[in-house]
Amino acid sequence: QVQLIESGGGLVQAGDSLRLSCAASGRTFSMYAMAWFRQAPGKEREFVATLSSTGGTTYYANSVKGRFTISRDNAKNTVYLQMNNLKPEDTAVYYCGQHRLAYTITTPPPKPSEYAYWGQGTQVTVSS
User: Is pLDDT at 108 greater than 90 in this prediction?
Assistant: First the structure.
Protein backbone atom coordinates (compact mmCIF):
# COMPACT_ATOMS: atom_id res chain seq x y z
CA GLN A 1 0.00 0.00 0.00
CA VAL A 2 1.48 3.31 -1.10
CA GLN A 3 1.44 6.18 1.36
CA LEU A 4 2.54 9.75 0.76
CA ILE A 5 2.66 12.07 3.74
CA GLU A 6 3.26 15.78 3.25
CA SER A 7 4.49 18.17 5.91
CA GLY A 8 5.97 21.62 6.27
CA GLY A 9 3.08 23.88 5.40
CA GLY A 10 2.07 26.89 7.44
CA LEU A 11 1.17 30.55 7.61
CA VAL A 12 3.87 32.93 6.41
CA GLN A 13 4.20 36.47 5.14
CA ALA A 14 4.91 37.48 1.57
CA GLY A 15 8.61 37.14 0.81
CA ASP A 16 9.16 34.34 3.31
CA SER A 17 10.28 30.80 2.59
CA LEU A 18 8.93 27.35 3.36
CA ARG A 19 10.18 23.83 2.71
CA LEU A 20 7.63 21.13 2.11
CA SER A 21 8.45 17.44 2.51
CA CYS A 22 6.70 14.35 1.25
CA ALA A 23 7.65 10.98 2.71
CA ALA A 24 6.76 7.97 0.60
CA SER A 25 6.36 4.28 1.30
CA GLY A 26 4.95 1.23 -0.41
CA ARG A 27 6.70 1.24 -3.80
CA THR A 28 10.35 1.46 -4.71
CA PHE A 29 10.64 5.21 -4.42
CA SER A 30 13.68 5.57 -6.67
CA MET A 31 11.78 4.16 -9.66
CA TYR A 32 9.12 6.89 -9.86
CA ALA A 33 8.94 10.50 -10.86
CA MET A 34 7.39 12.71 -8.22
CA ALA A 35 5.48 15.95 -8.49
CA TRP A 36 3.96 18.75 -6.49
CA PHE A 37 0.54 20.16 -7.35
CA ARG A 38 -1.54 22.72 -5.52
CA GLN A 39 -5.20 23.55 -5.23
CA ALA A 40 -6.66 26.85 -4.12
CA PRO A 41 -10.30 27.14 -2.99
CA GLY A 42 -12.66 27.01 -5.93
CA LYS A 43 -9.90 26.17 -8.39
CA GLU A 44 -8.67 23.03 -10.08
CA ARG A 45 -5.55 21.24 -8.95
CA GLU A 46 -2.62 22.77 -10.81
CA PHE A 47 0.88 21.57 -11.56
CA VAL A 48 3.75 23.14 -9.64
CA ALA A 49 6.88 21.04 -10.23
CA THR A 50 8.06 17.55 -11.10
CA LEU A 51 11.32 15.66 -11.16
CA SER A 52 12.46 12.37 -12.59
CA SER A 53 13.21 9.21 -10.65
CA THR A 54 16.90 10.11 -10.35
CA GLY A 55 16.25 13.81 -9.84
CA GLY A 56 18.23 14.66 -12.94
CA THR A 57 15.32 16.21 -14.82
CA THR A 58 13.01 18.85 -13.41
CA TYR A 59 10.14 20.91 -14.75
CA TYR A 60 8.36 23.86 -13.19
CA ALA A 61 5.21 25.83 -13.77
CA ASN A 62 5.99 29.29 -15.10
CA SER A 63 4.38 30.86 -12.05
CA VAL A 64 6.98 29.34 -9.68
CA LYS A 65 10.06 29.13 -11.89
CA GLY A 66 13.02 30.80 -10.21
CA ARG A 67 11.35 30.77 -6.79
CA PHE A 68 10.63 27.09 -6.09
CA THR A 69 13.03 24.14 -6.20
CA ILE A 70 12.00 20.50 -6.23
CA SER A 71 14.46 17.87 -5.05
CA ARG A 72 14.51 14.33 -3.74
CA ASP A 73 16.51 12.07 -1.47
CA ASN A 74 16.04 8.51 -2.65
CA ALA A 75 17.84 7.16 0.43
CA LYS A 76 15.15 8.77 2.59
CA ASN A 77 12.22 8.13 0.21
CA THR A 78 11.41 11.82 0.40
CA VAL A 79 10.71 14.60 -2.07
CA TYR A 80 11.01 18.26 -1.15
CA LEU A 81 9.71 21.59 -2.39
CA GLN A 82 11.75 24.60 -1.35
CA MET A 83 9.60 27.69 -1.77
CA ASN A 84 11.26 31.10 -1.65
CA ASN A 85 9.88 34.61 -2.08
CA LEU A 86 6.36 33.38 -1.43
CA LYS A 87 3.45 35.43 -2.74
CA PRO A 88 -0.19 35.57 -1.63
CA GLU A 89 -1.17 33.84 -4.88
CA ASP A 90 0.84 30.80 -3.74
CA THR A 91 -1.78 30.18 -1.06
CA ALA A 92 -3.20 26.68 -1.58
CA VAL A 93 -3.19 23.12 -0.35
CA TYR A 94 -0.04 21.47 -1.70
CA TYR A 95 -0.11 17.81 -2.70
CA CYS A 96 2.68 15.47 -3.69
CA GLY A 97 2.00 12.81 -6.27
CA GLN A 98 3.84 9.71 -7.46
CA HIS A 99 3.81 8.92 -11.17
CA ARG A 100 1.78 5.92 -12.23
CA LEU A 101 4.58 4.56 -14.47
CA ALA A 102 8.13 3.65 -13.46
CA TYR A 103 11.02 5.63 -14.98
CA THR A 104 8.62 8.02 -16.69
CA ILE A 105 8.36 11.79 -16.36
CA THR A 106 5.59 13.73 -18.04
CA THR A 107 6.57 16.97 -19.71
CA PRO A 108 4.57 20.00 -18.62
CA PRO A 109 1.88 20.54 -18.12
CA PRO A 110 1.28 17.10 -16.62
CA LYS A 111 -2.25 16.17 -15.66
CA PRO A 112 -3.15 14.92 -12.19
CA SER A 113 -4.27 11.68 -13.84
CA GLU A 114 -0.61 10.90 -14.64
CA TYR A 115 -0.03 10.33 -10.93
CA ALA A 116 -1.39 7.21 -9.28
CA TYR A 117 -0.94 8.16 -5.65
CA TRP A 118 -1.41 11.35 -3.65
CA GLY A 119 -0.81 12.58 -0.16
CA GLN A 120 -3.41 14.23 2.03
CA GLY A 121 -2.06 17.72 1.36
CA THR A 122 -0.50 20.45 3.45
CA GLN A 123 -1.87 23.99 3.69
CA VAL A 124 0.30 26.92 2.70
CA THR A 125 -1.07 30.37 3.45
CA VAL A 126 0.82 33.51 2.45
CA SER A 127 -0.36 36.81 3.87
CA SER A 128 0.35 40.14 2.17
Answer: no
